[in-house]
Specification:
The protein is mainly alpha-helical and 76 residues long. 47% of the residues lie in helices and 11% in strands.
Length: 76
């Protein structure tokens, strides 16, 4: 009987979302379809024509980074 694979890491949707959040945090605009999703889910907002990650977006970034098995330092 073949063994069942257990999935680890991020799903494709989570991976794309994390990449979009990282792009915004790095001062870059993600692809339009990613940006539209981030805006719709209120993870990112436009302030004075610039993109900014919201508090909700920062929590999601931290959650996804943890799920991916990466370490991060909490903001003070």
């Amino acid at each position: 009987m073949p063994s069942k694979k257990s999935r680890t890491g991020l799903s494709n949707v989570q991976n794309v979302r994390l990449g979009g959040l990282i792009a915004v945090l790095s001062g870059r605009d993600p692809y339009d379809f990613i940006l539209d999703s981030l805006l719709d889910d209120e993870f990112v907002e436009r302030v004075d024509e610039k993109l900014r990650v919201t508090e909700k977006g920062m929590r999601e970034k931290d959650r996804l980074i943890t799920l991916a098995g990466l370490m991060f330092e909490k903001d003070a």
